[in-house]
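anyone seen this seq b4? input:
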Amino acid sequence: MKKSDPGDSQPASELISKRITELGDWRGETLARIRELIRQADPDVVEEWKWMGTPVWSHDGIICTGESYKDKVKLTFIKGASLEDPASLFNASLDGNARRAVDIHEGDTIDESAFMTLIRQAVALNRSGKSKATKKTKS
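predicted toks r here
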């Protein structure tokens, strides 16, 4: 199921695809690859379009958002502080009590396996209804 803001006439998945195309550079390519990894990690993910144009991926709650800026693509995990991150993917928003983010700049590579593990952990955390880290989910 794909959701979008009530004011949007297009499904969220189409709006996200349109954003990727509109970016037309490394940011669009990065967002497209991240989207693919999220879908691989959680085939039941729900794509949403919130906050006047932010791609959001959810499963029993928000997993992460995917914002594009001039110099980066920012993936903010709403409950990132409760996730184990042995690969140290989180490199932004490290001071908060809940959120953590992965900032990807032009030319950066991301450990795809570790990223998909974070997605699976976030889904497991959402499904558990808890906000504290539990045993790491296996990939």
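Residues 1-6, 132-139 have pLDDT under 50 and may be disordered. The longest strand covers residues 62-68. kinda curious what u guys think
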